[in-house]
Amino acid sequence: MSTVIGLINYGIAGNIHSIKKAIEKAGGSVKIINEASELESVTKIVIPGVGSFKDAMQELQNSGLLEALKIAAATKPTLGICLGMQLLSSLGFEYGKTKGLGLINAEVKPMLVDAKIPHMGFNTIEIIKQNALLRGLEKEEFYFMHSYEVVNFHDILSTTEYAGHLFVSAIQKENIYGVQFHPEKSRMAGINLFKNFINL
After folding, report:
1. Among this protein's residues, is 184 annotated catalytic?
2. For FRET with 199, which of 20, 44, 126, 134 sits at 20 to 30 Å CA-CA?
C-alpha cells in the first residue's frame, strides 16, 4: 500500500493548506480528512493546529473525528504540529482544564518566561534522543509561534531554549510524534522533516 498522509481538517486548523503544500513538496501524497470514515484509507496522520486547546478539542468533538482519531493514531504513524502536538497530551490548561487526546502522558501549560509571549520566530532545537523524524536536522532552525508548552518528562526528542527557559520542542511515544514548531513555515528544514516522516 502506498503512503497516503491524512491531514486532519477540524475547522480551527487554519494552516492546513500550507502543510499540504509542504508535504507534497517533500514527495508525500495528502488526503484532507473531513470525517471519521476517511481515516481508514490513509497510512499516516498529521494533526495541524492553530488556536486554543479548548476550541480545538471542541471542534474535533463536533466534527465527529475525535474517537476515530484516537483509534487510528494508536496504530498509524501520527505527527502533531504546534497545537496539534499539544492536543496529543492528556490535559490542557488553556481557558480552564480540557481533556486532550491522551495519546501521550503530558500536560499543556502556559510558558512562564521573562520575555515576550508568544515565543515567535526561528529558533534551534537540541536533539536529546536520536530518532528517525529529526534525523539530519541537528543544526537546523525551525519557526515557532506559541504561548503554551507541553510538559512531559518521558518522551522527549528535542528541547529548545527561549529567554533562559528550556521547553520540549519534539516528542515521540512509539508511533506518535509531535513538534512544537511549524515545519510548513521552516523552509527546507521543514520539508526535510516531512521527508523523514514520509519515510518512517
Report:
1. yes
2. 126
